[in-house]
Q: What sequence folds into this?
């Protein structure tokens, strides 16, 4: 048995998320079906994490096991020929059987694209619109409160089974991309369900002046979902990369 | 007669360019048809310039004349309700009859998005892939040769009727957006047909080492289209803004 690491990118717009589901078009479903066609055997893939419906990935990392040695280069080409254009395989490499796409991951980076001003046809392709008069500077200041080791219970969808909600955020900052377009960049050792989208919603509350920066410490310490902002739409969210 | 300035954004992917054409879906066609529906009269719009099929605009500027005073705010809302989602009106304002969207423009900024590495599903939405081993530093250096006043005949599609091909480029530079994604930003007092896409194609030749930076002066001075690089695909090109 040989384990392989598979790096992929996808535009999540037309998929019901990563995880395979009956009667739904998913990234995992498309990948496993393409792998079956190419390798002539049933392959299960394990990703670093499951992204939600509408979430994209610049580089998602997965692993799979295969009974026989494969030609990585040829398999990559075959897969990209079979897969829909909005799922692209970036890399296939042999790896140790110790490697686990989910459990071996050390840190992940997500980006959330958003813009201020009137609805814009170019930005709507990949970013979420947030009103006209938003205090971006205050949002940038607020980002600092998320950095460090915290119990992120306030920023986790309530329907989760994960017990330990302590995570370390190494970096949280807003990058001005010009023309009213911005991205939130957040790197952490792991993320809870909807964590980035809820952090983004909380930052938007700060931007609107509905929440003061200094109150963020209390919001975190409350460990209560209803103290944080709303869950922002999936569209602006992109998994940038996973480090091992 | 009252003149109005109209600022719009569009995703050019699904249109045969800006200019109205019989039996083709164009930005101008959609806009004029929506204006007719809202204002109950035939309106002709004039843009700062016509963008090609597949080219998008973050902010394109147009003007139109109307026999009667309109309620700008209400017209904007009606237009955005009628127009397809990939064309958005950003602003409508009264302006002087001296104002001309094309002839009054002082400068324009275009952006061309491109990326290096394997084909990526996220970047493919708006950027053009250029090979794996590209010398981005050399491309950045090459940009400087385009700045200033030059006869840009080498960088103009041959099927153009424009006589005077002298233009001033105020700024030409490459911005590293991270993760292998880049944009060329170019600001000038005007652009010839396909000029940005040919400049981009020439920069790619420099990136591949097919053309030395120092040769660019000769390419410009040759005033000959076949000395420059190929015309890059329209997909990566965005009209960022127009200044008056």
A:
């Amino acid at each position: 048995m040989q384990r392989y690491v598979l790096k992929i990118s996808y535009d999540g717009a037309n998929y019901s998320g990563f995880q395979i589901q009956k009667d739904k078009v998913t990234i995992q479903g498309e990948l496993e079906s393409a792998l079956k066609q190419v390798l002539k055997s049933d392959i299960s893939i394990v990703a670093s994490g499951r992204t939600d419906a509408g979430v994209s990935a610049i580089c998602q990392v997965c692993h799979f096991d295969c009974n026989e040695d494969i030609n990585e280069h040829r398999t990559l080409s075959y897969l990209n020929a079979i897969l829909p254009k909005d799922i692209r395989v970036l890399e296939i490499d042999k790896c140790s059987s110790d490697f686990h796409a989910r459990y071996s991951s050390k840190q992940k980076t997500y980006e959330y694209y958003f813009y201020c001003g009137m609805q814009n046809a170019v930005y709507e392709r990949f970013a979420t619109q947030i009103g006209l008069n938003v205090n971006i500077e205050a949002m940038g200041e607020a980002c600092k409160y998320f950095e460090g080791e915290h119990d992120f219970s306030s920023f986790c969808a309530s329907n989760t089974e994960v017990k330990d909600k302590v995570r370390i955020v190494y970096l949280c900052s807003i990058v001005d991309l010009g023309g009213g377009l911005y991205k939130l960049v957040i790197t952490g050792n792991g993320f809870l369900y909807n964590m980035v989208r809820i952090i983004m919603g909380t930052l938007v509350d700060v931007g609107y002046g509905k929440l003061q920066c200094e109150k963020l410490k209390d919001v975190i310490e409350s460990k209560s979902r209803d103290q944080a902002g709303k869950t922002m739409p999936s569209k602006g969210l992109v998994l940038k990369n996973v480090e091992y």
